Prior knowledge:
Elements: H1 2-9, H2 12-28, H3 43-57, E1 65-69, H4 77-84, E2 92-96, H5 100-113, E3 118-121, E4 135-139, H6 144-151, E5 160-165, H7 169-176, E6 180-188, E7 196-205
Parallel strand pairs: 1-2, 1-4, 2-3, 4-5
Antiparallel strand pairs: 5-7, 6-7
Amino acid sequence: MIDELLEQNVSRETYDKLRAYEALIRKWNPSINLVAKSTLSNVWNRHIIDSAQVYTAAFGEKSSIWTDIGSGGGLPGIVIATLTQGEDQQTNVTMVESDKRKSVFLRTAIRELGLSNAEVINERIEDAQISISDIVSARALAPLTDLFTLSRGFADQNTTFLFQKGRNWASEIEVAQNHWSFEYDAIKSETDSNAVILKIRGLSRV
């Protein structure tokens, strides 16, 4: 399981930061809907381990500039920033979140966890000024075609997209291919048998 691999392969400091982030979600969730109430009892596996899979999927990819769109409560953005902090190649994680209260939570998490490699942009994705990114990620945000449209201002053909998708991922691919050309791998989720992480490269309009 990725849970066991995570505990074995990250530093104790990193693991403790992820547990501290779990505690922050539990503390803030009653006042800000960061995760569904029905999943609050299983934050670690359902949300943090689920998000850590995106970091695993990025292995081998250049990731100096990582943009997480529609970050919400920081899933996967805060998890990515925590796991990449201190790597030989610095990864700077930008989280884009339009909701002001969730942005306050994200900034609080960044401060309390000491994530010097992370920042928050509290704007609509369409309005945000973002550098061309090596990696763009999103979790449960929008259909694939919309994600491509939202990302086009800060992505090019060298950008890798990592999008977490549920049981309808294949139909989303089919629809997107009517308008976009791309290569993809569907990496099976270890936390949800119906879900995948879509790893997409070489995006261009048809």
